[in-house]
Specification:
With 358 residues, this protein is an alpha/beta fold. It contains 15 helices and 9 strands. The structure holds coproporphyrinogen III. The site of coproporphyrinogen III (CP3) has 22 residues, from loops. It catalyses: uroporphyrinogen III + 4 H(+) = coproporphyrinogen III + 4 CO2.
């Protein structure tokens, strides 16, 4: 397995095997902070034009790897491809958030939703995965991803972005059975989507539960964690996905790491509000951890970035199972040079931490 990979640090760390230094990739590593990304997006005409064209998607996936010594590639796409394929009509106005032409709020709306065809509406995603794998030629592994059912439901019910996604939260109290029907069709869609990405060549999988942290403890377990656990269970017996490490990332859910580790996933993403040492104790060696530099630190001076990167590495310590990442996505105003400084510091200090000469 993965015999042809030239750099398997990321997969080794996810399996909690020894590595020469700490692997790093960055959430939203292909994005607007890169001038070459902005140029390709211009050529594509729109965000969806970019994501739905496998050549463009491949091109922007590889852009950050040409600049930085990153240890993984992540498929260029978006979590909202599933609701778009369900017929909600997704668009992104330049400089603004996602917008759906239709919302999902009534029993009739939910009844209309079906699992999208992975060889039909979502074929462009699988074509992009196949093309990227070919172009990567084993340099680093490719991460496939999906949104969590809860986070997808947030956008589908609201019809776009929101500070608090209060429309769906109110539905959870007023019409829990309806919300569960929505989350159920989404969970089946996410499992099928990730299985298809695995079949197309993804080498690790990640579920982004960006809005799980909006929920209190009991609703988090009922409306977010339950469905992620169902997906993990399904993928762990799936022909294509069962060999692949699966990473769960719920932003703002530091209090739930132990419960999340019990789902049977390989790793958890951790945001910057939780100390990695505490997170490591909470998961008791059951999973690897990915994180957790505050992305805002990339706007600070180079010496601050280096120091804070070392603080994160020291916080995890010289133990197996750490993948360095930001605690959330990189923002458009970050100077690409600062990403280079971060990547190099993580690799250099990761070696020092393991007792090897820098
Ligand atoms: C919530 C969410 C979305 N999309 C995603 C999440 C979960 C992770 C997170 O919390 O950030 C996931 C995502 N979106 C994108 C990727 C590509 C891979 C990568 O990380 O490099 C990934 C993994 C590209 C993108 N997705 C989007 C962009 C910017 C679009 C542009 O070019 O204008 C990119 C590079 C658009 C998008 N997509 C979404 C929003 C809210 C927005 C608008 C806000 C923003 O611009 O950051 C939904």
């Amino acid at each position: 397995m993965n015999a042809a990979l030239k750099n398997d640090r990321f997969l080794r760390a996810l399996r909690r095997e020894p590595v020469d230094t700490t692997p790093i990739w960055v959430m939203r590593q292909a994005g607007r902070y890169l001038p070459e990304y902005r140029a390709t997006r211009e050529r594509a005409g729109s965000f969806m034009g970019l994501a739905q064209n496998p050549e463009f998607a491949c091109e922007v996936t590889l852009q950050p790897l040409a600049r930085f010594d990153l240890d993984a590639a992540i498929l260029f796409s978006d979590i909202l491809t599933i609701p778009d394929a369900m017929g909600l009509g997704l668009s992104f106005a330049q400089g603004e958030g996602p917008q759906f032409a239709r919302t999902v709020r009534t029993a009739a709306d939910v009844a209309q939703l079906t699992v999208p065809d992975m060889d039909g509406e979502l074929r462009y995603v699988m074509d992009a995965v196949r093309l990227i794998r070919r172009e990567l030629d084993g340099r680093v592994p490719l991460i496939g991803f999906s949104g969590s059912p809860w986070t997808l439901a947030c956008y589908m019910v609201e019809g776009g972005g929101s500070r608090d996604f209060a429309t769906l939260k109110a539905m959870c109290w007023d019409e829990p059975a309806l919300v569960h029907r929505l989350l159920d069709v989404l969970a089946r869609s996410v499992a099928a989507y990730l299985s298809a990405q695995a079949a197309a060549g993804a080498q690790a999988l990640m579920i982004f539960d960006t809005w799980g942290g909006l929920l209190g403890p009991a609703p988090f377990r009922e409306f977010s964690l339950h469905y992620m656990a169902q997906i993990v269970g399904e993928l762990n017996t799936d022909t294509h996905a069962r060999e692949l490490p699966l990473i769960l990332f719920s932003k703002g859910a530091g209090a739930h790491l132990a419960a999340m580790a019990d789902t049977g996933c390989a790793a958890l993403g951790v945001d910057w509000t939780t100390d990695l040492a505490a997170a490591r104790r909470a998961v008791a060696g059951k999973v690897a951890l990915q994180g957790n530099l505050d992305p805002a630190i990339l706007r600070a001076a180079p010496e601050v970035i280096r120091r804070e990167a070392r603080t994160v590495l020291d916080s995890y310590g010289n133990h197996p199972g750490h993948v360095f990442n930001l605690g959330h996505g990189i923002t458009p105003e970050v100077d690409p040079e600062h990403v280079r400084i971060l990547v190099d510091e993580v690799h250099t200090y990761g070696r020092v931490l393991r007792g090897a000469p820098a």
